[in-house]
Amino acid sequence: MFDKVRVPILGLVENMSCFICPHCNRASFIFGKEGARQMAAKKDLKLIGEYHRVVVSSPGSVVSKAYEDLAQNVVNGLKELHDNPENEIQMKLNVPHSS
C-alpha cells in the first residue's frame, strides 16, 4: 500500500517475533521465525528491529533490551533522513482539477 501512495518507509519492525517463557526464558516462535527479515530483504528495506511483549517490570531483561535497540534504530534512521534530505522521496499529490 505504501508503495502505491509513495510514502517513504524507514524500515520494518517485527512485533511479537517470539514468546519468551517467563519461567524458563526459552523463546518460542509462534508465528514462524525471521518473517520480517525475509520481507525486508524481499522489499529492499531495513529491518529496524524485532521485539516481543515488553515487560515494564524487568527493565534489564532481554525483551527490554530488544525494545531499546528498536527505538534507537528508529532514532538513527530518522536522523539519517534529517541529515541527508537529498535521499528523501519527493511526494506528489495527484489531485484532479475541477473545470
Automatic annotation (TrEMBL):
The GO annotation for biological process reads: iron-sulfur cluster assembly; mitochondrial respiratory chain complex I assembly
Cited InterPro entries: NUBPL-like, P-loop_NTPase, YlxH/NBP35
Q: Which GO terms describe its molecular function?
A: 4 iron, 4 sulfur cluster binding; ATP binding
Q: Which Pfam families match?
A: ParA
GO cellular component term, pick one: mitochondrion
What protein am I looking at? Answer: Uncharacterized protein
* Species of origin: Brassica cretica
Q: What is the lineage of its organism?
A: Eukaryota, Viridiplantae, Streptophyta, Embryophyta, Tracheophyta
Keywords noted in UniProt: ATP-binding, Nucleotide-binding
